[in-house]
Structure formats: C-alpha cells, structure tokens
Amino acid sequence: MTTGARPRPEPRGEERIFFEAAARGHVGICRCRVCGRHFLPRVVCPFCWAQDPVAVDAAGTGSVHSFTVLHRAGLPGFEDDVPYVVALIELDEGVRLVSNVVGVDPDEMRIGLRLQAVFSERDGVSFPQFVAA
Ligand code: ZN
Description:
Distance between the termini: 31 Å
Low-confidence stretches: none
Number of domains: 1
Strand content: 35-45%
CATH architecture: Beta Barrel
Largest sheet: 5 strands, antiparallel
Number of strands: 8
Mean pLDDT: 94
Order of helices and strands: HEEEEEEEE
Bound molecules: zinc ion
C-alpha cells in the first residue's frame, strides 16, 4: 500500500554532474587534476584538497561493498517495493555510492557481487540503479 509520493531528487551544485551524467546513461564522478583519484562530484578533492576537479563518466561497473534488505519502506512512496536492496557499491574507479540493486532476489545478494549500472527516470530526473553483471 503506497502512502505518498516518492521524494523527487532536486539536484543542486555539483550534484548536477551526477544527474546530468545519469540523463546521458552514465555514472558521473570526478577525477582530481592533481592526485588523479576519483570521487563523487564535489568542488574539492577529498584526498588532497585540490580544487576544480574534472567531471568524468565512470565505467558503470563495480561490486557490492555492503548492503541491507529493507522489509519496511524507509520513505513514503516505497511501500510497494519491499523487500528491496539498498547497497554501498564500490565502482571500479574506487568510488563508493549508495544505490538500489534491482532484479536480484534479496536472498541472492552477497558482498562482492559484480554489478552494472542501469538507469531509471522519475519525474524528469534520471538516476542509476544496479543489476547483477
Ligand atoms: Zn586530489
């Protein structure tokens, strides 16, 4: 039973790198011009504090670093999806992000499962989710 509308992402600031890449079918991340490491979009490198990183497209592949199976919706509007998987995903570039793993039986989830990004759209906003590779 759905009790309300799902919250709509409202991309702001450097978050736009992530959502604009998703609209093109890519996972948007940043690469530092100084140390070369990758990270989720932000204006300062979290490793060396260099400014003005480069926006790049990740390969869209990675693996499950950790996960949980939700049997009660964490937010209004997700009641019809339970049980669903929320995972901490480590992209092959070394960046970790939280997303859903879809199309995998929650009982089949495991740490290290190889994943591939797929893209969904809701209310005009595209976002990545992940399926088993
Ligand atoms: Zn850096």
